[in-house]
Amino acid sequence: MAAPVSSAALSYAILRRQPSPICSFSATFLLPLSSATLDQSRRVSLSSVWPSQLRSRRRSLSSLPAMASEKALGSKGKQGLMVFDTEEELSASLAKYTAELSEKFIRERGAFTVVVSGGSLIKSLRKLTESPYLETIDWAKWHTFWVDERVVPKDHEDSNYKLAFDGFLSKVPIPPDQVCAINDALSAPGAAEDYETALKHLVNIGVVVKSASGYPRFDLMLLGMGPDGHIASLFPNHPLLNVTDKWVTFIKDSPKPPPERITFTLPVINSSSYVAMVVAGAGKAGVVGKALGNEKTADLLPVEMISLEDGELTWFADNAAVSMLPDKPSL
């Protein structure tokens, strides 16, 4: 007798045969949102959307267990840091932050566009799959994307889709046709072009907003960072860091396996309304110290190149991740 097929394996199989409708331009997809719904002028500061319980704990970086502050990054957005004693506290606060932004954008324009990465980030989203968020978030209005993806089958152990499905997507009721996974039947160049075409379609029908500079402007990017300072599949000193004429590009020589991937370009990341950079563990401490310390060098790491056009970047970190910050009060 054949072994029973798991729901996850069945989902992977279905998606391999028929890519998500959001990426194949289903005629039954959402109607365009009205211009009033898409009003971008009603922006609020991070402190006004931050849950009240966390706002009351926003104090200098010398204060633990939770500490936060903001600084202006020239004329380009703001940067804040939240530090927690444990990863458990970090995950709980990340869930509150995400839920507040979900409510804000759904109220303002009827949709919430969320970009996720792979790695340990998905584990940090686990609180969203529990009460009260599972019942109170309007999941039907979520549209989910990946900042990068490995060009492998969706049921492959290296797939960011599989990681997100197992740890998050299979546990929340986001409509499947609002989950934009890559077409893994294509080559890396073909998958990148296909994904960018899908994004352009969503911009055209009003689901994704376009920034002033012409790139897609996602409501929230939930990102992790590698121990080498890479974000998405943008690695230190790699030519892809300089790509500005594409929304989505590809890499065939990734320093980290698997070698073939697609990735959002840096201008797309920098066009976001909000970015949460989630880092935990001593293995990230050296890079965090370089990225957030006052001493800057010419050889910027990819994570240091995040400079939002008109948005807010918040670091969510545990004590171990900031243990090498030489000047904590400076942020």
UniProtKB/TrEMBL annotation:
**Reactions this protein catalyses:** 6-phospho-D-glucono-1,5-lactone + H2O = 6-phospho-D-gluconate + H(+)
**Residues annotated as domain Glucosamine/galactosamine-6-phosphate isomerase:** 86-315
Quote a single Gene Ontology cellular component term: cytoplasm
Q: Which NCBIfam families does the record cross-reference, listed alphabetically? A: pgl
EC number of this enzyme: 3.1.1.31
* Membership in a protein family: Belongs to the glucosamine/galactosamine-6-phosphate isomerase family. 6-phosphogluconolactonase subfamily.
Biological process (GO) annotations? carbohydrate metabolic process; pentose-phosphate shunt
UniProt keyword annotations, A-Z: Hydrolase
Pfam families hit by this protein: Glucosamine_iso
Which terms in the Gene Ontology molecular function aspect does this entry carry? 6-phosphogluconolactonase activity
The identity of this protein, by name, is 6-phosphogluconolactonase
